[in-house]
Each structure stands twice: as structure tokens, then as C-alpha cells.
Amino acid sequence: MNEFLSFAAVVMGIFISFCMYTTLYGKPNPLRSWAEYSYLGAGTGVSIVIGLTYIWNTAILGIQAGDWILIFSIILGLMMVLRVHPTYSYVSRLPLAFTVGTGLALSLRTQIFTSFTLQIRAVIVKLWTNVPLDLLYRVTIAVSVITILTFFLYTMELSGPLFWTSRVGEHLMYIGFGAIFAQTFMGRLGLFIGYMESLTTPTWKTPYTLASALICLIAAILFERTGLGEKLSAG
Amino acid sequence: MNRMSDEGGIYKTMATYDKRWVYVALFVIVLYSLIRPIGMPIGISAMTKNYKAQLDTLQEGDIVFSTWNMEFSGYMELKPGVLATHKMFIEKGVKLCIAFGHFECVALPPEIFKQIRTTLDEYDYTEGEDYIIIGYVFPNEAAVAALARDFHANVRVDWKGNSIEGTFLDEIQNAGDFDMISDYTTGLATTFLIRHIVLEYDTPMVVNSIGVSVPGHLANLDAGLITALLASTRGGAELEFLTNSPGPGLKSMDAFTFGHYSLIIFIIIGNIGHYGWTRRTGARERTGIK
Amino acid sequence: MSSFFKSRSAQITVLIVSFLLVFIPYFIPWGPLDWFSGKLMTIAAVTNAFTIVIAVYSQFRRSGRFINERRKGWVYHIYLLVLLAVMTLSGFIFGQHEGAYQWILLAVVTPLSSVIYGILAFYMSSAGARAFRARSPQSALLLIAGFVVLMYQAPLTGAFFPGIEGAATYLTDTFGMSVSRMFSISVSIGAIVLGVRMLTGKEVAFLGFGEGDE
After folding, report:
1. Which chain A residue lies closest to B214 (C-alpha atoms)?
2. Which of A233, A235, B101, B234 is disulfide-compatible with B138, CB 3.0–4.6 A?
3. In this complex, is the C-beta atom of A113 within 8 Å of any C-beta atom belonging to chain B?
4. Helix, strand and coil in chain B, % to nearest 5
């Protein structure tokens, strides 16, 4: 791509980003609709190209290399596509059953270890250790996991010690949620800051960023005040 | 913004202001911090030190499976960690096999390699010889499992359609032949990689994760399923500091600091307004956009 | 022939056979079965990838309806379909690394992808400002824990209060991780139960069968 086109792509990207940011203004406007439908159209196009390229690279090239069994993947895939046909959609049930069966096997045979037994094993560790901090961590994790699990027992009435452990678990869970919320916010903020950083580095982008932000904000306000925002947007 | 009325005064304002002022404040704070960074100090967490220590175990010629399980948005958050880690790989002379877990990753290689161009040129790191991009190969769990079992039956060409025969990937029969998996994730195929590669072949795996997924990956780290975890932008900035390669992470830390402080201030203001006006009057005025 | 495709028992049989052919070799390794199981995984991966065609067809149908009925915003749907066609055709004709495909990818898809998820930071900020109230002991605990971890995550705080790292790390590495672990355990139990129900034919809605269908 030559330099001018690269430059144009950057400037267009900055402008269309702030068109999308007008969502925050809270009122419909055509800039936001334009950005939304651009992403839908272009994003779907990209996913088609990449998806079909994967099918070509894996199945077609594999068949050409002598892996004839992969012909079944093309046959089953085309049968799957018949799901959209009004009369023959029942044909897609067979490949669907096959893919679900395979997927179930793949997930169940490993999930029982990664998400269940190994997680439980990580809790059941020697609590006593010479390092006080390790002792504190291990005891806290053990108590938290067990009490939080009792909180989620819905199939029986909780009374006596089970009731109190579930109450403790509830409170510990809220502490956990507070920590998780903070980490989630860190993630989302990092995402926003990372993108803003890319819009201000190198520094020649900064004036375009500020100008786009201002233009889009003014446009959003004008569209609202004139009533054109509702008329010209997609809904 | 609502004007201060005689009843409730500042408490009412704190309880009923238009939420769009929060958006404007966040925008201004972040943009200003990025345009005029101060350069605040940063502490290094034990988790980042462990991540770097794991990368330091790699030797020249080792083959690393670098799995980019992120959308372009996720890359914005993981950028510091991605760049710092790949610089380390190049400096150590490891071979990289780069795979995508999302279709948007096709836009990443030019972006990433542009940022580390100096390091690439300095170490004469070339595509085809030192790194190969095999493209989008993780559309679903079955694809991950199939590739893990028989690499060459599922990957024949790179992302540009060139055959991978005769390259360093000839040494890879299954996923167990990789010396390490370096995963950059927003939570896509990472679970599949753990289930079908780590569990089966015991391949060490380091993860650079977005903030949302960190609690889940902490459980995997504690269970020994992954060997190291780098958390979000902050972790990437710490790695930049440790490896002495300042980049977008350290530049963002001022904005990071003020962004967090601003949320705390918003929450405090909201609580003051709630207890000072909303709860006292018993009224709940609808706030937001009029 | 059509009765075979429509038959519920045939679908369940395919489900169970494909399940066993992939599940058993994991525990009982035997060369030929192992090889066949690997091929089944590749076939399943490619078959699943065909669902993108269904997604695109659905989009065309929906947009077509909007355009035919001249519903509000129908012009945007024409624009969407044109852009979709341009991306697809240029990607296949001129390649994925140059031309209109590459330009639109860099100018439209990647910036907007970043924005769509980045907007959540604003919504979280305003939600925090509006909804986070210390109304009960539980919410107070949530606020305090969130406050400590937020303060730690701001790098400047650690420079002035080094002790905050210990407190925040304790909260995230114990309570936060325990919640995630608990969810992981619960979800895996749920997934196993659902899997068993599907294999025993008690859960067939995913195949398009309703209650009493055969």
C-alpha cells in the first residue's frame, strides 16, 4: 500500500472511531449508524474470506495432498449449509449431530480434569508451611472455595453449620467480586487507553484525533438539536 | 449538567448529574495524560517477574508457538506485553510459529512488526526462516485438538499460501514438540490450548491476558496448568520496564493511574450524593440524559 | 431417505457414535483408532467452519427484508451489503494482503473493533458512579475490596504506599481466584450433566426437535 493510502487509512480510521464514540452521546445520529453498518458489512466480509480460506487450506489442500477422508468434511459442510433451505433443512441435522458429538467428546474428556479435578486438587494442599504468607494464602483459598460452594447449594435446605458456612461464603464472594470488578475495569480501561495511545502515537496523529473528536461531538449535538439525528439514523 | 437548586444543593448535584460528564471527564483525563505524560514510577509485581523468568528459560533455536487469540481491540490492551515478549523472543533467537485465533488477527502482523522493526533488523529476523505465520487455524475446539495431534496434516501453508515444508516447522509433528506456548488472549481458544496441548503434552504455557480474564487464569496458574501470567496493560508495562524496552505500556501508565483514580472519585461522589440527598429525601430522581 | 435424516434415533446414534470415536481413544490408545479419531476432529473443524455461510445468508435475508419493506434505515442495509460484497470479492480476487480488502481492514474494521469494546470502560465508569452504593454489609465489602485493588492497579499508589501491593494481591489471588475457581467447577459440572443429557437423548432441542418430535 503506498504512503498516501496508508495515511488515508489512518485518518479514516480515526474519524470513523469517533463517529462510533458518538454512541456515548446517547442520541441516535447518522454518523454512528454509518460506523455501525460499516463495521457489520466489512467485518462480515473479513470473516467470510478468512473462514473460507481456512476451509481451503485445511480441507481442499489436504485432499489434494492425498488425505481423501477429508472429502467428508466438504460433504458434511455443504449438508450443514442446507439448514437455510426451507424444504431440506432437515438434512443439516446429521452433520450437526456429528459436530456436537465430536465437540462433546473433546470438551468432556479434558474439562473434567482442567476445570474440575485439577482445580480441586489445587485447593487440597498442605496448609501448614514455614512461610506465614503461604499459610495465610492457602487457608484463605481453602476456606473461600469451600464456603462459596456451599452458598450455591440450591437443592436442599441449608440449616445449622451449612447455613453459617454459606453465609460466610456469601460475604467472601462479595469480596471476590469487588476484586474481580477492579480487574475487569483495569481491562476495559487498558483497552480504551491502548487505543487512545495508538491514536496519539506518533504525534502527527494527535491533531487529527482532537479534530475528529471535536467534529463528531459538535455534529452529534447539532443532529440532536435540529432533530435530524433521529430521521437520518438507522434506528 | 443540572444546576444547583436550593433544595439539596451540592448533594443533589452529586446524585443527579448527567452521566455524560463522566464520559467527557474520562476522555479528557486519558487524552491529556497521553499527550502530556509525566512519567510516574511503577512497581513490579511478582507475577510479572515470574513471567519474565519463564521466558528467560528459552534457549536459542527453541520453537515457540505464539498464539494470538485476540481481536484487534484486545491487542490494544495487550500491546505492551505482546511487543515486549516478542522482542525478548527475537533477542534470544527463538523460532516463532504464529497462529491466529480470531479473524481480526490478520491485521496484526504489519502493526506489530512495524513497532519492533529495529529489533527485527538488528537480529536479522526474517519471515520464513526465523518466524512463520500460519494464520487463522483456531476457528473452534476441534481445530485446536486436530492441530495438536497432527500438525502437518492440519497446517500445510502459511498465511500467504507458501508451503511450510523445508522450514523449521518440519521438526514439529505434534504440539508436544513446541518448547513453549506463548498465548495472548481475550479468552478465545486459550481454554482449548490448555485442554488439548498443555494437559496432553505438558508443554509449558505462558499467558498474556486481558484484565477481564485474569481471575480465571489465576486459577489455572494456581492449579499448575499455566506456568506464568501477564496481566493486561499494567503487566505489559512492567515487562517493558524489566526488559528495558520502554514502549506503549509505560507511556500509558499515567493515563492508567488517572483513569483509576477518576473511577474512585466518581464512586465516592455517587455515594456522597446518595447518602446526602437521595436517601435523605426518599426521592429518586431519574438522572442521565433528559 | 428423507425419513433417515428426519429420524431422531438416527441423529442420536450419530451423536453417540461420533462421541465414542473421539472419547475412547483418549483413554485407550490404539494406533488405527487414534488416527481415525484425529481425522474426525479435522472433519468436525472444517464442517463447523461452514457455519459462516449460514451467518452470511441470515444477514442477507435480514437486510433484504429491510430493503424490500423500506423500513427505517434501509439505505444503511444497502450500504452494508455493498461493503460486504466489496470485501469478499476483493479479498478473493486481489488477495488478503493488498488492495481494497487490506485498506478497509485497516481503516474500518480494526479501529471500530477497538472502539466497540473500549466503550465499555465508559459504561463501567458511569455504572460505578451510579450503582455502587454501600447499602449493606455485602456491598460494603465489595466496595472496599474494589477500592483497594483499584488503588493498587494505579501504578502511582504503589510508589507512595508500598503496602498496598500486599493487600491487593491478597484479595485478587485468594478471594478473586476462589470465585473464579468456584465458577469453573460449577460450570464444568453443568457441562458434564448437559453432555450426558444430550447423549442419552433427553436434550434434543439443538437438533431442531421439539417435545414429542420423532
Report:
1. A183
2. B101
3. yes
4. 55, 15, 30
Confidence (pLDDT) at B274? 84
C-proximal residues of A, 114-133, CB under 8 Å: 115-116, 119-120, 122-123
Q: Domain check: are B27 and B74 in the same one?
A: no
The closest CB to that of A41, out of C81, C171, C185, belongs to: C81
Q: Do A41 and C83 touch (CB under 8 A)?
A: yes
Domain that holds residue B268: 9-36+251-281
Across the interface, which of A96, A115, A195 has its CB nearest the CB of C187?
A115
pLDDT tens digits for range C173-212: 999 999 999 999 999 999 999 999 999 888 888 776 655 4
- B222 falls within a domain: yes
ipTM: 0.88
* Single-letter residue type at B159: W
Chain C segment 23-62 residues within 8 A of A by beta carbon are: 23, 26-27, 39-59
Residue B107, domain CATH: 3.40.50
Burial tier of B281 (Cβ tally within 10 Å: 0-12, 13-18, 19+): middle
Q: Is C204 at the interface with chain A, CB within 8 A?
A: no
What residues of A are in contact with residue C179 (Cβ under 8 Å)? Answer: 144, 148, 173, 176-177, 180
Chain A, residues 186-225, CB within 8 A of chain B, namely 186-198, 200-201, 206, 209-210, 213
- How many angstroms separate the first and last alpha carbons of chain C? 15
The answer on B179 and B80 residing in a single domain is yes
- pLDDT tens per residue, chain A (235 residues)? 688 999 999 999 999 999 999 999 999 999 999 999 999 999 999 999 999 999 999 999 999 999 999 999 999 999 999 999 888 888 999 999 999 999 999 999 999 999 999 999 999 988 888 888 889 999 999 999 999 988 887 777 778 888 889 999 999 999 999 999 999 999 999 999 999 999 998 999 999 999 999 999 999 999 999 998 888 888 7
User: What's the number of domains chain B is made of?
Assistant: 2
Domain ranges of chain A: 7-66+206-235, 79-124, 126-201
pTM of the complete model:
0.90
Identity of the residue in A189, A195, A200 whose CB atom sits nearest the CB atom of B35: A200
Chain C residue numbers with beta carbons less than 8 Å from the beta carbon of B264 are: 147, 150-151
Q: Mind spelling out the 3-state secondary structure of chain C?
A: CHHHHHCHHHHHHHHHHHHHHHHHHHHCCCHHHHHHHHHHHHHHHHHHHCHHHHHHHHHHHHHHHHHHCCCCCHHHHHHHHHHHHHHHHHHHHCCCCCHHHHHHHHHHHHHHHHHHHHHHHHHHHHHHHHHCCCCCHHHHHHHHHHHHHHHHHCHHHHHHCCHHHHHHHHHHHHHHHHHHHHHHHHHHHHHHHHHHHHHCCCCCHHHCCCCCCC
Are B200 and B273 in the same domain? no
Number of residues assigned to chain A: 235
The pLDDT value recorded for residue B241 is 95
Instruction: Give the span between the Cα atoms of A61 and A66, in whole angstroms.
Output: 9
**Contact (CB, 8 A) for B209 and B47:** no
Q: Is 60 exceeded by the pLDDT of residue B45?
A: yes
Q: How many residues does chain B have?
A: 290
Pairwise CA distance, residues A222 & A218, whole Å = 6
User: For residue B114, is it within any domain?
Assistant: yes
Shared domain for B267 and B225, answered yes or no, is: no
For A124, name the nearest residue in chain B, comparing CA atoms only: B223
